[in-house]
Structure formats: C-alpha cells, structure tokens
Amino acid sequence: MSDRNVAALTADSDYIGFIHHVKQSTGIDLAQYKEAQMKRRLTTLRVKNGYDTFSDFFAAMMKDKELFYEFLDRMTINVSEFWRNPNRWEVLRDIILPDLQQSGRRLKLWSAACSTGEEPYTLAMILSDKNVLGQTGILATDIDDGALSKAKQGLYLERSLKDVPKDVAARYFKPEGHLLKVSDTLKKNIDFRKQNLLLDKFDEGFDLIICRNVMIYFTEEAKNKLYHKFSASLRPGGYLFVGSTEQIFTPAQYGFESTETFFYRKK
Questions:
Q1: What are the residue boundaries of the CheR-type methyltransferase domain, all occurrences included (predicted)?
Q2: Domain extents for the chain?
C-alpha cells in the first residue's frame, strides 16, 4: 500500500473516531449529516484552531466550552435573517394563518432549528400585527446553546433586517449601541428550548411547524425520519413550512399534501 493510501486511511479513521466520540459524549450524530460537506466544514475549523487531528480537536473541544460552541455553530450553519424569502412569509400571513385561525382555538406553533431567533421573531411580528400574538403559543428550538443564548438576548445587526418592511422594523426594534434590540413584547411570547431534532422526542398537536434551510444538510435517511416525526407532531390540517431548496417530492408518504409552494398540509 502506498504512503498516500495509508495517509488517507489514517485520516478517515481519525474522522470516524471523531464522529463516534461526539455521538457518545453529546448525542449529536454527525453520521446523519452529508459527510463530504460536514467533514470539509469541520476540517476547516480544526485547522483554523491549530489542531493536526480530529482526535486532538475533540479532546480540546471537551475542555474548552468556547471551542465546543464554535463547533456547534459551524455544524449547525447559524446563518439567518428576518423575513427570509419575504413572499413566503406573506403567504403564511395572508393564506396559511387565516386558514388555521378558522378553528377558533389557541394555535400552537413551532420554529424548529431556529438558530439565533430571526425566524420565530418574524413569526411573532406577523402574529402581533394580527393582534393574536397573546393567544398563540410559539415554541422555538435549536441544538446550539450559543445560538439560543443570542436568540434570547435579541440583539441583531442592522443588515439582518434588510427584508423586514420598514414600518414593521420601526414597531419592533430599537437601537442599542451599534445593534438593534427586539421588542420585549415579542420576546415574552416565545419559548426558547434546546433540542436535538434527530434524537429527541417531539411534542404533539402543532398547527404549524417551520423548519427551513436545515434539511438540506441531512442524509436522505435522516430527512425521511424527520418528515415522519414532523407529520406525527402536527394536528390534521396543520402545516409544515420548509425552505426554498427543500421541496418534498413525495409528500403523500408522510401524510402530507402540497398546498402553497413550500407549505405542506397534514391530511
């Protein structure tokens, strides 16, 4: 066997060991993510922090909380903004929510993999403008403690509000130094919690689940599992709202029917 092949096998074994140790220590199963994409991203992070092997990087990560948070941040792609793809939020506001409100009951909504909070806060703004925020339950979850901490803090760069209508931004944000702070009215109506989508059991009875721009990082097997879990968590007639690159091509196998683009209703 050539030296090159030996080096490749050693590198593969190093990364496989890293996956095993991460799952054993944290419950996070990196094997459920697309391997080439995840390995490339984490290799960049490892090299940037000066570690020659994933074994050394894992050992350091377990001792250094900031390094572990950096790993989570890189793994979960915490890139978000308010009103991302505005026309989809308009469909939610003008078509989906009025349909759900016909039931007359308190709505139960969930922003899954909410990152640093832009998505659930966007939802809360829409509900507040409809004067139903106080009569609606919003759960927002993410696997990353650092992202959840930022979401609860509610401080954002102005550029993350580029798609927010100016009158809406004026109602719900106030300057704080170089940042903008989200209104306490929105904050107090969102329940932020830590959750591992692949591992944890989901609550039930949701009218709407929003999970956008996350599924693209998972393997087909993991996606299939999650779509079944989301379906089981929705009430009949409830909706799953996915990202603009995450169309479900066979929704019926999960008990869904396609309605508006990127919205799927549970039959």
A1: 11-267
A2: 2-75, 86-266
Residue 112 bridge partners (DSSP): 141
Q: Whose CA is closest to 14, among 47, 74, 217, 33?
A: 47
Indicate the angle between helix axes 65-76 and 35-48, nearest 10 degrees.
150
Positive or negative, the CA dihedral 51, 57, 62, 67 is: positive
pLDDT computed for residue 11 by the predictor: 63
- The Cα–Cα gap between 211 and 147 comes to 16
- Has domain 86-266 been given CATH number 3.30.70.1450? no
Q: Pick the closest to residue 114 from 21, 56, 190 (CA basis).
A: 190
Res 140 pLDDT > 90: yes
Say yes or no to pLDDT of 174 above 70.
yes
Q: Which residues of 200-225 are buried (b: 16+ CB within 10 A; e: fewer)?
A: eebeeebbbbbbbbbbebbeeebbee
Give the pLDDT mean for 64-71.
85
- Nearest one of 52, 69, 55, 60 to 15, comparing CA atoms: 55
